[in-house]
Structure formats: structure tokens, C-alpha cells
Amino acid sequence: MVTVKEGTRPPWVGLGAAVWVQIAAGNAYNFPLYSHSLKSVLGFSQRQLTMLGVANDIGENVGLVPGIASNKLPPWMILSIGAFACFFGYGVLWLAVSRTVLSLPYWLLWIALCVATNSSAWLTTVILVTNMRNFPVSRGTVAGILKGYGGLSAAVFTEIYSVLLRNSSSRLLLFLTLGVPALCFVMMYFVRPCTPASSEDSAERGHFLFIQAASVVVGIYVLTTTILDDSFSLSAPITYSFVTIMVVLLMAPLAIPLKMTFYPKRVGSSGNLDNGDNNADESEPLLKPSISTASLGSFREGNDSSSDIAMLLAEGEGAVKRKRRPKRGEDFKFTEAVIKADFWLLFLVYFVGVGTGVTVLNNLAQIGIAQGTHDTTILLSLFSFGNFVGRLGGGVVSEHFVKTKTIPRTFWMTCTQILMIFIYLLFASAISGTLYAATALLGICYGVQFSIMIPTVSELFGLRHFGLFYNFMSLGNPLGAFLFSGLLAGYIYDNEAAKQHGLNYLHGTNVSCLGPDCFRLTFLVLAGVCGVGTILSVVLSTRIKPVYEMLYAGGSFRLPQNTSN
């Protein structure tokens, strides 16, 4: 049985700690920083390298086991598993790149990369599940904040890579091997289940706004300092001060529980909530106008007893002859959700958005070199900052319009995938001076897919098995990477490189490709795929519009009663 922490401060302490864990969970975004070393030091071809990129995405997104474990194990145990996966996986990669151990087989490195980045699945799952249960009525905002910091993590690691590690791939891998597990062990005490708030209040909205503003400041700061360090020869004290200030800014979310500690009377607007942590005897009614019986009780319990009792009272007849299936907006079991058309439509739309975007991310270094940009650090920082803006902005914008206009969140996936069609065509045209803008815009559209999918799947199918649903949806990322990056982009790149060097295509050759033709056909295919995704997204948004009208009819989130027919 998981112990639930009482009080108003612990959820905010947990959210502040989760920000750091989410940044650590972004370790998979570092692949472009050391991929060139895998290619040059170990002599891999582009196709072999893109298949390692597929391993990177498989490990990051195949989280069905963490999803199941999130309902069985306490958060600290899940964090520990993620820490050990990071240690062993990146440890093997460091041994290979640093040449500490020679001639490690390709298949071992592929598996090691899967294990290393699978730590992201464990870490992301535990903080998302825990914090969305701690803030059930603000799930869109919480998802946007956490995934926003996740998108920002690549820029944070890039800052560390360029300033502290001096652009050394082997040092970066050693940092990931030791630094990420150490952070997880420090934060595991603070990421814990807490008593969820029963309704929104002005203080909570102000706190979320503060965290969002702080994250924007961090994003702009990291992008600016990365560009400055890359463009000018700055002294060591200045660059080290950049990192120090960045660390201080990342601690900003912890200012909220500190404020609650020093000014306890200003916390909360509800008369039935104590402002401290010693309200263990507080109890809440099981039924409220805004939250149903299943909304809070089912967060912590793995059985269906409460819903069974609700079913007995449903018809007012004293008994129910046959248990009905849940409706959209209620808590689904996995077997009940997978037979729903909306489940697969959401999966396909998400697959298109992230699958095409991750193809560019995995090949970003080679895309930049092919178009004449040999220093790809700024490209990665731009993509990361755009990813952060998309994740944070997607959560904020969708939360606003779903509450004021009951517009389904997936409407914004439609908008961004239409934009992605034009972005891929811009990449394919290779017009001079457009690479940086296209990369930043793609990062924004890519980030929106995450911050929309997460609250949408919880709103349609409930929070009880959210960890499993979220991780199943996340399979769209590695599936897209395998199809579009591993099979398509890598094959076309190597063929074009062989033509340029006057060679017949030979698997395992390590040659570089220059010019727009290296990825032009790939970008055209990605644009066509996004066209299909746009159509599917329109169909999905139309189908779930009535669900959102029911959930947000009063201007705030309200779970449907399980007793309704």
C-alpha cells in the first residue's frame, strides 16, 4: 500500500523535485551530441547510426512495464530502477567511446543504448503519474509544465556539454552514467503521492503561472548562453557562472513550498484545508459536484470495488444484472480502451506527429552538415527550445481553450501537423538561411504533440491506468523512428552518399553525404505522412467534441458520474 502524504506543501515540493527528474529523464535527447563519435570512433555507417537512433527511441518510449509498475510499486522504487538502467546502459557506451574496452559488438551497443534510454521511460512515468494524481483538476497544466522541462532538458545538457564537458562525447557519457542516477537518489524522497486538491483556487493558478514563467526564463537563458558560448571565446569563469545561474533558475519551483512555509496563512482559499502538513485527520466527502466517486479514490487503489458499489446503486433497483462498459471520460481498463476507435485514432495521430519529428531530431547533425552547417550545437539548442515552447505552450493554450470554449485538445495537434507539412517542404527546398528557423518551428510542433496527448488520454480513458495508457501511446515514437529514420532516412542518405563518392551501395560504409539531396526525398515523404495525420486528427477532434463539452461544461474539469447510462 502506497503511503499518501497529507498537507498542502508536499505536492508542490514533489512538483519542484519532479522538474529536476524530468530534465534528467531527457537524457535520450543527447544522442545528437555523441552520435558523431559513435560514427567516427567506431566506424559506423549512417544506416547503422540511424538504427542506433531507433534503439535510442525504443528505449525512451517503450514503457509498458513502467506503466504497469506505476500502479504496483512506490515512486522511489521506480526511480531506483530508472537510475540503475541509466548507470549500466550509458556505462557500456562510455566504455566503447572512450576506448576503455575495444571491439564491443554492435548488437551489445544497441542493447546498451536501449537500456540507457529506457531510464527515461521509468523516470517520466513515475513523475507524470504521481503529479497528475496529486493535481487531478489541473492535469493539462501539470503535463505541460513537466513535458516542457523535458523538452528543455536537451538545451540544459547541451549547456553542460559545451561549458563543463568541453564538447567531449566520452565525458558526456560518463556524466550521464554517474550524474543522472545520483540525482534520482537525491530526489526520490520528495516525489511521492499526496492528498490531491479537490478543486481549483486562485492561489494554485498563481503558483502554476509562476512555474510556467520561471520555465520560460530558463529556456530563454539557456538558449542565449549557448549561442554566446558558441559564437564568442568566453573565459572559463564566465562560462561556469552561466551554468551556476542555470542551476539556480531550475530551483525556482521550490520557491512555492518555501513561500507556504514562511507565509502559511496565505496558502489556499478553502476553509476546510489546513495550511500546514499536519492535517492528517482531514477527510473529504466521497461525492462532490466536481469530482466523482472514482476520481480520487481510484487514484490510489488497484481494485474496482468502488465502481462496483456505484454500479449497484446505478439503477436504483438494489442490484445490477450486467456490469456496463465505461464511457469516454470514465476509468477504463486497458482491455476496454484498446477496442475503442478513439484510442487508435489518438495513437495514429500521435505516431505521425512524433514519428516524423524524431526522424529529424535523430538526423539533425547530419542534416546540418549536409546543408553546410558543421557546428550543430546551435541547431540542437534551437530544436530543444522550440520543443520546450511547444510542450509548455501546448499545455497552457489547450487548457485555456478547453475550459473557455470546450475545444478538444487534439484541435491543436491538427494545427501543428498542418504546419509541419510546410516545415518539411521548407527542409526539402534547402533554401539558404531557412535551416535554423525550420528547426525551431519543428521543435515547437513536435513538443505540442506530447503536451496534448498526455492530458487527452487521461481525460478520455481515466487516471486509474494512466501510466499504462501513456506508455502505450508513447510507442508511436520508436515506431516512427524505426520506419522513417531507420528504414527511410538512413537508406536514402547512404545511397546518396555512395552516388557522390562513386561507390556502389555497400552496407557498413562510412561516407558522408553533402547537399540537399541527402534528405530531400525523406522530407517529402514526411510531409505526405503529416497530411494523412491531419485528416485523422480532424476525425478524432470531431468524435471527441461531445466528451469535452461534458467534461468542461461548467468551465472547469468535472468527471462524469460512473452511475450514468
Summary keywords:
mainly alpha, globular, single chain, 565 residues, 69% helix
How would you describe this protein?
69% of the residues lie in helices and 0% in strands. It is built from 22 helices and no strands. Mean pLDDT is 82; it is low at 266-305 and 311-321. It is mainly α.
Structure described in brief:
With 565 residues, the protein is an all-alpha fold.
* Count of distinct strands: 0
- In terms of structural class, how would the helical and strand content be classed? mainly alpha
Number of helices: 22
The main pleated sheet reads as: none
Show unreliable segments.
266-305, 311-321
Overall 3D shape: globular
Helix and strand succession?
Answer: HHHHHHHHHHHHHHHHHHHHHH
Strand content: under 5%
Query: Distance between termini?
Result: 32 Å
Secondary structure layout:
Blueprint: H1 10-25, H2 31-42, H3 46-61, H4 64-69, H5 75-97, H6 106-134, H7 139-163, H8 169-187, H9 202-231, H10 236-250, H11 255-262, H12 293-300, H13 305-314, H14 334-337, H15 341-362, H16 364-370, H17 377-404, H18 410-429, H19 435-461, H20 466-473, H21 476-500, H22 520-551
Helix pairs in contact: 1-6, 1-7, 1-8, 2-3, 3-6, 3-21, 5-6, 5-8, 6-7, 6-20, 7-9, 7-10, 7-17, 7-19, 9-10, 9-17, 15-18, 15-19, 15-21, 15-22, 17-19, 18-19, 18-22, 19-20
